Amino acid sequence: MRKDNRLSRMLHVLIHMQLRGGSTTSETLALMLNTNPVVVRRVMAGLRQHGYVRSEGGHHGGWTLACELSSLTVLDVHRALGAPEVLAVGLAADHPACPVERAVTLTLGTALRATELALLDRLGHLTVADIAAELVV
């Protein structure tokens, strides 16, 4: 299963935007992320809709931060990206009448839900500024 790295990549982008100051074009961000500017614009659109970044077109346009990184949690960014699944482990549903599968699904499902809730809670208390403070330059 392919891992969704959008959260990590957008945290990277937001911190770079803070460090750079001013505006940053989709082309510059695309080079940083080794992707296409169209992909950058599509992903950044979710952050813009939530008010975390702004965009301006034209010759001097680009993306700018619309909030302080100290007020932006990792959970906020996760939600702006559409709240993708945070765990890659899935539950089988091939044989729902099988008592073994039901027991596995119940037990594993309970553990996975508790893990996901704990992770999301932690991400809700971790700001992007907290991550930026870990920079060793």
Automatic annotation (TrEMBL):
Entry superkingdom: Bacteria
Gene Ontology terms, MF aspect: DNA-binding transcription factor activity
InterPro entries per record: Tscrpt_reg_Rrf2, WH-like_DNA-bd_sf, WH_DNA-bd_sf
Pfam families linked to this entry: Rrf2
Example of a GO cellular component annotation carried by this entry: cytosol
SUPFAM superfamilies from the UniProt entry: Winged helix' DNA-binding domain
Protein name as it appears in the record: Rrf2 family transcriptional regulator
